[in-house]
Specification:
- The protein has 491 residues and is an alpha/beta fold.
- It has three domains: 91 residues, Arc Repressor Mutant, subunit A, CATH 1.10.10.10; 254 residues, Type I PLP-dependent aspartate aminotransferase-like (Major domain) (Aspartate Aminotransferase, domain 2); 102 residues, Aspartate Aminotransferase, domain 1, CATH 3.90.1150.
- The protein contains 19 helices and 14 strands.
- It has an eight-stranded mixed beta sheet with strand order 3-10-9-8-7-4-5-6, with helices on both faces.
- Strand 8, helix 14 and strand 9 form a beta-alpha-beta unit.
- The longest helix is centred in the last third of the chain and has 24 residues.
- The chain starts with a helix and ends in a 6-residue tail after the last helix.
- 41% of the residues are buried.
- Bound molecules: pyridoxal-5'-phosphate.
- The site of pyridoxal-5'-phosphate (PLP) has 13 residues, from helix 10.
């Protein structure tokens, strides 16, 4: 007992400047010495009077910590003889002898789909968290109305408990689905109703669900090349065979897809703002794609990830609205229009697909927290969403103009592509410049760039960098360009 008490007392360090109170620290430290084996089953703890004196805490604090551990079953109190580490813990501890433990670095056995796909995954370790030049895919977090959002949050926590605390409707909170249908009609003239909308934990979750419902291993999926890397990874993991289809100023080159594989189960496109080149898919191409899908009996996924942010023209029409055969599934997200940490997106399906999606969602899908969905619904219904979008259009336009003005100072080797929507664009480079070297040199100076090759499923002739301008301030963008001007790899 003397030995273990000494070991116990020397291993407990309490920090009086910590945000955690000393009582909580003492409880956690005691739990740690028990679980790590410093104190063994049957060891007696020092009396609370001694513990309190040695550690410089009040006796009440020491008693509270001990009582919590008794309640958890780690300690037992025996009247008249003291407090002991519970014998029950002996059974939970791994034996000190016996067969050698399995090496913790050994990989688990992965499914054949994932094993096969892993070699072809696009790297996404650069997922953006930090608002700075030239992070892609991150909206203007600095301009989000946080105070208003906090008020909405408080209101929803006080709501009827069953509304926000129970299991929500599998398809998503009805008021949100209704608000999304209204928004799609106002924004893009899409005619739809709430029963065609399925709320998901982001667009990426939507792609995963659609793939799970429609793909068999080996099925062909047409992917824009360059194109969206997250969607690509999802379909690879589901065992699909991806067909890289060329992209030009009119969007996906359907003739290239037909030449490579007229049969396909899914085609994935970003018609409003091609990811990452930024082109709008032309009407002839849209009809070609719908005809190809009809012939292949395939389905088209329309990813409209930032369709709200056109700077001055009318909103771009959805491919969904051109489709009369019920072959297009439209996927939207609040990651750009609000913020990505919400993890809320949605799927809009043609009428004929409702029974299949209803069945899947009610069988095993769970979406984002109901409280979050209810907050977004109120934000939309009360007009704040439309206001926010309008403000953000102006803000992104100003940020783009700041970028374009500053980029004029870059060497002639860099050709910034003009854009009228979204919050990223491409800077094209001649083949003589090594984009990866530029990315590496910029990263050393704290500036984040994405090479165009990162979006490519198969090599393309064009060389360049994708520059996000949504999350950084005009000053931050100017400083970013100033940093790029000094890079030896850019000349
Ligand atoms: C092409 C594309 N689609 C959709 C999304 C949004 O995905 P999520 O809604 O899962 O955040 C992104 C995010 O960057 C994207 O780049």
């Amino acid at each position: 007992m003397k030995h273990s008490a000494g070991a116990l007392l020397s291993s407990i360090k309490l920090d009086r400047n910590s945000a955690k109170g000393v009582g909580v620290q003492l409880f956690m430290a005691l739990r740690e010495v028990i679980l790590s084996g410093v104190l063994k089953p049957g060891d007696r703890l020092p009396a609370t009077r001694i513990l309190a004196r040695e550690l410089g805490v009040s006796r009440t604090t020491a008693i509270d910590a001990i009582e919590r551990l008794v309640t958890e079953g780690m300690l037992v109190s025996k009247v008249g003889s003291g407090t002991f580490v519970s014998d029950a813990l002996a059974a939970q501890r791994p034996a000190s002898s016996g067969p050698a433990p399995v090496a913790s670095h050994r990989q688990p056995r992965l499914s054949s789909n994932v094993t096969h796909a892993a070699t072809a995954y696009a790297r996404r370790s650069w997922l953006p968290h930090d608002a700075r030049a030239f992070i892609t895919a991150l909206p203007a977090l600095d301009a989000f109305p946080v105070t208003h959002w906090a008020r909405l949050s408080a209101r929803h926590l006080r709501r009827a408990r069953s509304t926000v605390m129970g299991y929500g409707e599998p398809n998503g909170f009805r008021a949100l689905r209704r608000a999304i249908a209204t928004h799609l009609s106002a924004l893009k003239g899409i005619r739809c109703h709430e029963d065609q909308i399925y709320v998901t934990s982001g667009a990426q979750h939507g792609f995963t669900l659609i793939g799970q419902m429609l793909l068999n291993p080996g099925d062909r999926v047409w992917m824009e090349n360059p194109g969206a890397s997250g969607a690509r990874n999802v379909f690879l993991a589901q065992g699909a065979e991806l067909v890289p289809v060329d992209v030009d100023e009119e969007g996906m080159v359907v003739a290239d897809g037909l030449a490579k594989s007229p049969q396909f189960r899914l085609a994935f496109v970003t018609p409003t703002h091609q990811q990452p080149l930024g082109h709008l898919m032309s009407l002839p191409r849209r009809f070609e794609l719908l005809r190809a899908a009809e012939q292949a009996q395939g389905v088209v996924i329309e990813d409209d990830y930032d369709g709200e942010f056109h700077f001055d023209s009318a909103p771009q029409p959805a491919l969904y609205s051109t489709d009369t055969a019920g072959r297009v599934i439209y996927v939207g997200t609040f990651s750009k229009s609000l913020f990505p940490a919400l993890r809320v997106g949605f799927i809009l399906v043609p009428e004929r697909m409702i029974p299949a999606f209803d069945q899947t969602f009610s069988a095993w899908v769970s979406g984002p927290p109901t409280g979050t969905q209810a907050m977004i619904a109120d934000f939309m219904d009360e007009g704040h969403f439309a206001t926010h979008i309008r403000l953000m259009r102006r803000l992104y336009k100003a940020r783009y103009e700041a970028l374009a003005d500053a980029a004029a100072l870059l060497p002639d080797t860099v050709q910034l592509q003009a854009t009228r929507s979204g919050f990223h664009t491409v800077a094209f480079l001649p083949p003589s410049i090594n984009a990866l070297e530029v990315v590496g040199q910029a990263a050393e100076k704290g500036v984040i760039l994405a090479p165009l090759s990162r979006y490519c499923l198969a090599p393309i002739e064009r060389n360049g960098l994708v520059l996000g301008f949504g999350s950084a301030t005009p000053e931050g963008l100017r400083q970013g360009i100033e940093t790029l001007r000094g890079l030896s790899a850019l000349v």
